[in-house]
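Worked example 2:
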Amino acid sequence: MNINLIEARVEELDENLELTTDEIFEIVCREHHLNADSLAKELSCKCPFALTGFLSELELTKIADYLTIE
């Protein structure tokens, strides 16, 4: 999982003034196969900026705990 790609996507979506932070959070999670519900519960919010900070602090093996299985 490349955190830099997630951060870049968050910034790209944030430039669209019609999207809320909740919508950006959901879009990024969906695009990167992340479990939005688990992450929102862990973060106590749906903030895409908190998401990137949280993911950058996790060990790579722990990120797998937040992936969706498709």
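The first helix runs from residue 3 to 14. The mean pLDDT is 91.
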